[in-house]
Amino acid sequence: MEKPSLLEVVNKVVAALEPFSPDERKRIIKASLTVLEPDEAAVAGSSASPGSVESGGGLENIHQAAQRWMKNYGVTREELDQVFHIESGSATVLSVELPGSNKRANTHSAYVLVGIASLIATGDASFDDKTARALCETLGCYDPNNHASTMKEIGSVLNGSKGTGYKLTAPGQREGALLIKKIASRLTEAE
Fold first, then answer.
1. What's the predicted TM-score (pTM) here?
2. Which pLDDT tens digit goes with each residue over 26-71?
3. CA pair distance 125, 111, nearest whole angstrom
């Protein structure tokens, strides 16, 4: 069975909630979230953007899906702050020194970090090639002569293509967590 689009689901939910008063709608939504995601029900009804957290636990501006990813892989907010600038609705990779020993390895890492930045900001680890290439250029690992072959060898961490965009796979998300921990650890040791 194919998963329905977000728009289809929103249309069905709106149609189902129309007969109710605004207060009843809020109670229905909050109750639904309690059933679907008990730990996150407290966030429902806040003024934060959908999927984000307004305050508490140092997880401000981190999408709930990314918070689950953090918990699964033991990534802390402090580690994220060593690698990303996180604001409401956006996460930008900082100019960090990547741990790879060559441009090919660093390009691989840059693409993974762009996917994690997207996950932090939107809850979806999808991104376009243009954004990842721009990071490679910023970090000095973009090799125009070998970039295409580097992308062919990136392995199972990404799905997609230059034309359609990329999405981190589960192994890519795991690799992202390890990469963030490694970068943060090196920066902490240097202090």
1. 0.70
2. 667 766 665 566 544 333 333 334 444 433 457 889 999 999 999 9
3. 11
pLDDT tens per residue across span 82-130:
999 999 889 999 999 998 889 999 999 999 999 999 999 999 999 999 9
**CA–CA dist 91, 33 (Å, integer):** 26
Strands (E), 60-147: 84-87, 90-93, 126-127
Residues in the chain: 191
Give, as one character, the DSSP assignment of residue 165.
E
The residues near 70 (Cβ < 8 Å, ≥ 6 apart) are 59, 62, 76, 77, 80
Q: Which of 62, 75, 85, 103 is nearest to 178 (CA)?
A: 75
Type of residue at 98: L
Q: Are 85 and 77 in contact (CB under 8 A)?
A: no
The upper half-sphere exposure of residue 104, i.e. CA atoms within 13 Å in the direction of its Cβ, equals 10
